[in-house]
């Protein structure tokens, strides 16, 4: 039965269900047991900085581990644990902290299966929070999924709603390869229908969020709701947008993207990441290469600027791709002229 | 060898002016932070704010030994270090409000306050970010033949970071003119240090890397000052790095908005009443008769007026120029 759950609750439920189903699933991360108090009693005070693990320590005790602030060590331990019989789900609070432990991810976890001739499995999930929007400034706001998408051997998940978050996380936990799972901090409070029973969503299968014949918008994560707002505005002007949410950037469902662009002949890619060597430029390149003859207008990319995320609310609001900028880009590819610039 | 510094019995080499300055620094930090605590609750201040209240004696005691051309590398809890290193309080306040005229044009915010002209290498959003940078500062001083020193601050939580342990080794083996100051307030976010460290004295780790480790009471300005004086003197004279662990408490949550359900009831109240650095400092200097209560009260009034002005000006300041979104980044697309 489906109930309304927040994104945060959907992830919590996926973790709890998989922990119940499989005793080798363990959680590790900073403060995730919910706060270890001064009086020596571990409790369920906080649910971690992301609020996602609330209640799990009381249910699963020593399978929910608070770690020291030693990302190289505990992310590496999650990976080593995965290689030797566990299915760890590590929480790396902000994706920006990946810098501290990146070797363990891209030289170790990502390479094992291939480099060891197919003999190794590394069923680890690293959940991490990303994105701008809460005035967290340059070192706590980045959308770094393109960096991970670049690395062969990693699977990269960027859900846009609570239903997908639950199904994709369960899939990630059951997957035998390392998965980096991106949770947008602004989406945590988003509500949606989520079935109580356990279910999976396969990787590499895009979702049609909205159907339309005029312009294809490819967007993921938080950008999906931005694209929806833009599409509402455009519908009133008679421009029908199709929104494709790839849900995973690696593997990427190019088939669905191509199919849509073949039909509309027009593409706007919306990406919260930086513009160079990013998700948007990657999708644009794939489409240019494979659907060139179908294109009726140059592809437009709506991205963050090539700049660190600024702190000041006015600047940060200008940093994040907005529905207005998406509307502008769609009008351009639709040949309707641009009225909005910021 | 790890030593616990004996409580100092004299006011050492500190002049009356030094003492008044030290008090002003600590009071400014306290007033700045307590005011932020109040203003944050109104919803006017964006983002994450980590308050330094309770730990003032450390920033003041360390920085009283530093020159303007010495460097400090700070943490996410950096307002105290910035004030003690001489950063402009009004520009800091504007920065925290994300306004034009902020110390970093409103682009950094509370977690990234810096002023390179004053040797403030920056608050840091990455736990364990500063120690390697401060090794570089030490290397730079050494290679350029200056007698500058660098100080890296980390918390008890930050002292578990590989960057910290690697930096201890690097500084020791290169004999760098640096201090590592661990502000051990017993918590990393909500996790009590008994859950993240096996040996509670971080300073003991110094032994393993071959540098001196010293433990001091971080609520006592004089204890911090004296230990730092010794360490800074040694560093300047080419005697290498020191690890200084200050046992201390934070008065507020990990960040503003933290409900602190993981803390014992009355934990903070008790510390405020028995160990507060400002109260202890005032008692000490007034009972020895060097400074009068009136002089301290006058500083309190000055500081309150300064912070009032800083908040008023920050609230009234305009937002940053939108064009600043893509300045200071070499190239943009
Ligand atoms: C590399 C990295 N990991 C985790 C965090 C999140 N974080 C910010 S402050 C903090 C706790 C720091 O504790 P401590 O070093 O003791 O400093 P305190 O807050 O007590 O001053 C954590 C885990 C971070 N900012 N950077
Ligand atoms: Mg601490």
Could you characterize the architecture of this molecule?
The complex is a heterodimer of chains A (342) and B (333). In chain A, the strands form three sheets. A seven-stranded mixed sheet of chain A has the order 3-2-4-5-7-6-12, with helices on both faces. Chain A has a five-stranded mixed sheet with strand order 9-11-10-13-14, sandwiched between helices. Chain A is built from twelve helices and 14 strands. By secondary structure, chain A is α/β, with parallel strands linked by helices. Helices cover 36% and strands 20% of the residues of chain A. Chain B is of the alpha/beta class. Chain B has one domain: Rossmann fold, CATH 3.40.50.970. Chain B contains twelve helices and eight strands. The interface between A and B is large, with 48 and 50 residues. The structure holds thiamine diphosphate (TPP) and magnesium ion (MG). Thiamine diphosphate sits between chains B (75-77, 125-128, 154-158, 183, 185, 187-189, 254) and A (30, 69, 71, 93, 97, 100).
Architecture blueprint of SSEs:
The complex is a heterodimer of chains A (342) and B (333).
Chain A: E1 2-6, H1 7-21, E2 25-29, H2 56-60, E3 64-66, H3 71-83, E4 87-94, H4 98-109, H5 112-115, E5 125-130, H6 145-149, E6 155-157, H7 162-174, E7 179-184, E8 191-195, E9 207-210, E10 215-219, H8 223-236, E11 241-245, E12 248-250, H9 254-264, E13 267-271, H10 279-290, E14 300-303, H11 313-319, H12 323-333
Parallel strand pairs in A: 2-3, 2-4, 4-5, 5-7, 6-7, 10-11, 10-13, 13-14
Antiparallel strand pairs in A: 1-8, 6-12, 9-11
Helix pairs in contact in A: 1-7, 3-4, 8-12, 9-10
Chain B: E1 2-4, H1 16-41, H2 56-63, E2 71-73, H3 79-84, H4 89-97, H5 130-144, E3 150-155, H6 162-173, E4 178-184, E5 187-188, E6 191-192, H7 193-196, H8 205-209, E7 213-217, H9 221-236, E8 242-247, H10 267-275, H11 277-287, H12 293-316
Parallel strand pairs in B: 1-7, 2-3, 3-4, 4-8, 7-8
Antiparallel strand pairs in B: 5-6
Helix pairs in contact in B: 1-2, 1-11, 1-12, 2-9, 4-12, 5-6
The structure holds thiamine diphosphate (TPP) and magnesium ion.
The site of magnesium ion has 6 residues of chain B, from strand 5.
